[in-house]
Amino acid sequence: MDYILGAPQVILELALQHLAVSGGAVLIALLLGLPLGILAAKVRWLELPVLTFAGLLYLIPSLALFAFLIPTLGLGTQTAVVGLSIYSLLVIMRNVAIGLGSVPEPLREAARGIGMTAGQSFRLVELPLALPLIIAGVRIATVMTIGIASLAAYIGAGGFGVLIFRGIATADNDLIVAGALPTALMALACDALLRRLERRLRR
Amino acid sequence: MSDALRLEAVTKSYGSTAVVKGASFAVKTGQFCAIVGPSGCGKTTTLKMINRIIEPTSGRIFIEGQDAAAIDPVQLRRRIGYVIQQVGLFPHMSVEDNVAAVLRITGRPREERRRLAHAMLDLVGLPASQYARRRPSALSGGQQQRVGVARALVADPELILMDEPFAAVDPVVRKQLQDELRRIQAETGKTIVFVTHDLPEAFSLASHIVIFKDGQVVQAGGPEELLFAPASPFVSDYLAESRELLGLRFMQARGFATPGGGGVPDLPGDASVLDVVQALARRTVGDRLAPILLGDAQGAQTWQLQPQDLVRAIVGAVATSG
Amino acid sequence: MDALITFFAQNAELLGKLVRQHLVLSAAGTGLGFCIAFPMAVAGSLLPRLGQGFATVANLAQTVPSFAVLGLAIPLLGIGFAPALLALTLRALLPIFLNAYVGLRELDPALREAAKGIGMTRWQSLVLVELPLSLPAVVGGLRTAAVESIGIATLAAFIGGGGLGDLILQGIALRDTVRLLAGALPAAGLAILVELTLAALQAYLVRRTLRGSAGTPAP
Known about the structure:
Number of strands of chain B: 13
Strand content of chain B: 15-25%
Structural class of chain B: alpha/beta
Largest interface: A-C, 37 and 39 residues
Helix content of chain C: over 70%
Structural class of chain C: mainly alpha
Order of helices and strands of chain B: EEEHEEHEHHHHEHEHEEHHEHEEH
Number of helices of chain C: 9
Largest sheet of chain B: 6 strands, mixed
Shape of chain B: globular
Helix content of chain B: 40-55%
Oligomer: heterotrimer
Distance between the termini of chain B: 39 Å
Radius of gyration of chain B: 22 Å
Strand order of the largest sheet of chain B: 6-7-8-3-9-10
Number of helices of chain B: 12
């Protein structure tokens, strides 16, 4: 606690790094996961292989995943962002596929019945109905990413993990707490924010 | 004291709202009692207070003269059979194990459990040899509820409670189940308390009917009593819908006939007006105006009913029901 | 690839030791977590208000990075196996508790009423009806917890807890790709193996619990 209060400048800088790494990863995952999820929902035979493959990647321990990336990407922010986005990808993709799949068939039929094209039905009916679930996926991915991002400090990506590592190395509890507490708070804040968005969309 | 069940001023309140207000009625041993009333009238709550699934706020309930509040609720429920609309069969147990569940928890030996469960399955029309080892999910809705009835009967309870047991099955199956239940009740002589919102069901099964409205008992009595002597305009209105038809079922046709006539009777001496109408409908068109002969098989006493007198009976029934 | 095979061949003993450490740590963490979280779930299903409280705490606890939990265990237990075990146990609580709790709570209320109605005690209803039916959900929680444990056990290397993370950290520190992958590959393999095994167990339990749905159809 003393450390947080004593070095607000450092905390702020680490917070921005942490946010940038996590946000970047989730953004990439969203950009890839949305089309892949739509594809999985629309081309039924693709769903199983795509989700299974993403599911297997998701199982890999985070440190091991970073380890796989280091030989090609080296140490640094880029490795952290790519690794983190792989985890988020599964969650987002799965929620997009489930969200679109759960739109009731009669609604799709009604959309076609009043003369919507497939594209209009998707844009005006299916996507809006699936949106709360998609946002839920983004929320879960974000909370998870913020947590794992603290590990990314070890491979040179900065963030609150820097303080935790320094704390472990020097057996300084104050430093560990100074890294862990803001990480948890950031995760909780993002969770609350996205939950609110989700609720608003549900109405 | 031949009351199998007696409620005295039973009340159930949630906060400041009373769902059941001072309900009192009695059911005699061997009677088939139906509790009816519009939805939200407190009939299901009342039923669930009998086996203490819901605890009454005040008032007393006597089972075979014993105060239910003084009996341990678990022991009480083991003495009372219970059938609910959602059936509630345990999906991970076979049909046989479902039926025997009550016996299992009371520690009866395996062999006895098996024997009794099989006997009950046979009784409810699901031959044990064919159905005992199946899972509930492999049965149709109607068959599942038969298992539910078998489960309620297996421990030889003094009293059986049924909460809209046939409401979720389709009309054809419901009719079969009603017929089966009537037969089972006649065979076993069990006291049954049955909640339903389906008036024809109540009238076709029950020998005693309790009508609820807004948490209160507005009338209790035999079917004829309710039909021909409604205690209030509410009862009269409530029964009005099915009344014409029901009235015909409970009116003896020979009251409109003249003694005498000879030959083989068309219908038994105690046939209802409805029976006569149905018999006439089965005749060919040209024959419909011929008199109908009522009497017992020996032909010792017979009555002759003219179709025009039947019309008089029906008009009378409809008129009194207005 | 050849280098990797050579490494495995030359360090078979070390690798065996690390895999063993990794598995012991993961299994102990998951097992201990189960011993605490499962009774909590049962208690929570018996006392709804308590269950709500547990669920809220569990959800909050989940936002603390597992890596930080590892660090915070040091002041309590020093470095090595014990703090790693503590961290793993804490992380295993949430999935096991939530799955078992939700599994118990979401059972059809008619089943509980039927059990009560035929005269089962609260305990009999739990043992004979509710727990057997929620078993697949309980195993589902165990599965999530076990897979997560394999992942977090990798991090135990940071605080001297051993396991395959040792090789990864050495690989990063020494810029030795072979060593890096020699730790990462078996770690990933273990996670996938545990997932597949427990997923198969869960599927088997679902089938066994509700065997009839795939059995003889209604005539």
